[in-house]
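Good morning C.,

I know you're traveling, so I'll keep this short. The sequence:
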Amino acid sequence: MTVYIEETMNILSFQNVDLQATFYRPTDAELKTSILYFHGGGFVFGSRKDLPQQYIELLASSGIGILAIDYPLAPETKLATILKTTSEIMDWLVNHFLPEFNQEHYFMMGRSAGAFLALANGLYANHLDVQPLGIISLYGYFNLNDASFSVPNRHYLKYPKVNDQTVAAQIQKEPLVESEDQNRYLLYLAARQKGDWLNLFLSSSDQKRKFSLSKEDLKSLPSLFISAATGDPDIPVRQSRQLANFHPDATLKLFEVDEHDFDRTHEDTIGIELYENIVSWVSEKLAETE
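The tokens, ready to paste straight into the viewer:
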């Protein structure tokens, strides 16, 4: 018997497309808190349902629910609108979700691009009636002005070149809010090969600085749990190190591997170790409120 219940709910409508959430809540343990989860995918692909079952089970058995959400994807939707929409989701979380489930506290978590969204919306949450107790950033980033984002990536150049026709075939005429189609990944691959990934979700070059979080922004965020691979070929590990250095209450857990989303590729080893660390950290933060 599973240790969690899976419930799907509508959040809001985005340009006539429903944004949904999947709430994984414990069946055999008291619901102590919930984590708002933003999936990864370079802003262009991915699904809210991408968390492996054993991670959900580990969290649920510890009394931690996961609220996994949709958000608009690029290039059909640019980052300015993505952030506006996710801020509306934050409003819904505080005004509707938390009261419905009698939750006084919540956390935020994101993987890769989702970590950027978690951090950016953590900043937005400073203006809400209820702020998160902490934010979990897994192989994420906060600085879009990183030079490595605007040049061809050596790791992705090892793969066959993606042609323009293949890229064009993946771009939809209507807004897209999730994509489990493996071909959608080719958009990201092609952009990293060319060094123009930022152009998929930014409208102009000055937005690299505009949407990046400053040192002062980071200092205003709640406690952080940060993890990344030391040899990450996609997102430089320096972003995670800098994030930890800039924040007064940050926990940094690095793994000596050379893969970006290592909790997907090493699920039964360092992946489960990572999520056990997350459970311990969340439990410590909850204990501080008692």
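Safe travels,
E.
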